User: What shape does this take?
Amino acid sequence: MISIFPIPALADNYIWVLAKGQKAVIVDPGESQPVSDFLAKYRLEPTACLLTHNHNDHTGGVLALRKNYPQLKVFGPQEVAAFATEIVYPTQQFSLLDLPIEVIESGGHTEGHLSYLVDQRYLFCGDALFCGGCGRVFTQDYAAQFAALQRFAALDDEVAVYPAHEYTQSNLKFAEAVLPPSCVLMEYQERADMLRAQNRSTLPTTIGVEKQINPFLKAQTLAEFTRLRKQKDNF
Assistant: This one.
């Protein structure tokens, strides 16, 4: 049985921890101390780290963690070679915690951005997909980002989605402005507001939910996606 925990970090990041027994896998550690504290509290041994892309708020804690846990394997794209012990590539498959992991190409936000589908059930997507939104396209390669969203949309509706930021409330405000009125969207906004008022995470979401509330995942063409993404940049 796998358990998945969010560790809040920096301003609005989540570092995800997958735990099975006393073994753990860490996703996008932007800081090391919160991770070390969490591992010590629950007496977990970190065996691996998954990196989605080369931004400091996702990699800033890696070197300290490697120093503190010399056995730690760090998987990531070529762009994070300075931090990784294992370079992985789109469509590659490997196993951690006795679970299959598939690497999904999800560029656009950065060059080489990757996402990880664990056990066909849990998607760790960094900044490629958020609840109600997606990452800014810093590369200006809108086609790559749109293609990534199409790959996500092709996954099973039940797949749980674990983005790396708590952006749900602001994303849903934009969704409300650009999508037709929807009971699902309204209910999800109310849910997000309630959870944040309690200082609780709004995540994970699911692919099925995102197909209903996420304007970027609902976009049918590259032109529509590009227009929406540029509109959101200035929202």
Observations:
- The chain has one domain: 2-233.
- The radius of gyration is 17 Å.
